[in-house]
Amino acid sequence: xxxxxxxxxxxxxxxxxxxxxxxxxxxxxxxxxxxxxxxxxxxxxxxxxxxxxxxxxxxxxxxxxxxxxxxxxxxxxxxxxxxxxxxxxxxxxxxxxxxxxxxxxxxxxxxxxxxxxxxxxxxxxxxxxxxxxxxxxxxxxxxxxxxxxxxxxxxxxxxxxxxxxxxxxxxxxxxxxxxxxxxxxxxxxxxxxxxxxxxxxxxxxxxxxxxxxxxxxxxxxxxxxxxxxxxxxxxxxxxxxxxxxxxxxxxxxxxxxxxxxxxxxxxxxxxxxxxxxxxxxxxxxxxxxxxxxxxxxxxxxxxxxxxxxxxxxxxxxxxxxxxxxxxxxxxxxxxxxxxxxxxxxxxxxxxxxxxxxxxxxxxxxxxxxxxxxxxxxxxxxxxxxxxxxxxxxxxxxxxxxxxxxxxxxxxxxxxxxxxxxxxxxxxxxxxxxxxxxxxxxxxxxxxxxxxxxxxxxxxxxxxxxxxxxxxxxxxxxxxxxxxxxxxxxxxxxxxxxxxxxxxxxxxxxxxxx
Length: 513
Known about the structure:
With 513 residues, this protein is α/β, with parallel strands linked by helices. It is 45% helix and 12% strand. The termini are far apart.
């Protein structure tokens, strides 16, 4: 019997591992960079054709702009405005693209959480905008402030979530007061870059003021970068409504970032073909980007792509489909064509955290990875096409995101890493468990799953035969129990108390219809 074989049968592996003084693995999932080159589905000529056709759409067909102020801004820049339609010339678009920055600093209460929003960065944000929340213990329910705060604590607890998103909408707080609760909660329970809804100038201005007060920012601090980002969704096809147009204007004036994101579903609000849907998306995004630059040249703005297809039997949105992935890759090509950072999205149409939900979300995350998306929104927890935020779904999605994050760590092939001596000293048919090469690395070399159960069938049965979803319940529960509030959040309630009391007594700030 070989020495290696004897070690295997006598428990030498276990003893060696117990005696090892190898360091604990401490992965760093902050400030990730894309590990792979972006993929292509279109030739350069085809991308240029899509871009030129999008310009033609804006020039000849125009975009309906419901906000008079926005139409006036376009008209003063030389666009032809007729009734509510704005016909935007390619010269306006070209100048705007030249003025838009391609690298943007996203500030955070904790400077170590700050991000550089640019091509090559890999940023994940959780499922957002969900009116409902669900978990295995409490079931599906309307979103409330408690759920909103719980989801913030979950976002804060995992470094692979880089930027906050409004996961569970707190519907128990009136809309004219809701921004007070949501902004305070973001700064009280997290220290990551924040999201600000564009729901009217008054709410936007007050949200920015709350950031300055709560984080005790000087004017110099405020001007160092972006403290609040928002998502602007055009109303496909070819319409920009009042709140969204006002949001672009307000954020541009304050030099905060708006992410211009048409939601083009092929076969419904966009042509049924991938290239047709992307052409419409591109035209609408260019219009929003142009508006931001006309308001304030150099204002931070992001290209956005959230195109997918619909189920032609039911009309319901579909996610993680081949068409969704193709549109992600095509969106990346278009963003690089105009030299802007951009956002994509994952997500799921599944009603629960099941195999369908996992497959759809992982497909969307992988599509964003192949497309080199700067920001991937709805990367964890999104169910029912955005109608529900799932706690178990969030945890199982975190597993997938951390797997992707592991790919960002450089894999080396030095002599030390290859380990020729380890290969040399293990007999044919033996094992590497007890080699020095393994002992030096066993606790740091491999990713340790948080949800996946890698035990054998017998051990799995003895542990209760739990599914991944059932295991995820225990993980989110323990995460909330062990949550540690960031030190930057301790003073937030006191700093904001007078502001919120005063503004509430004045009637709050109604949302823009």
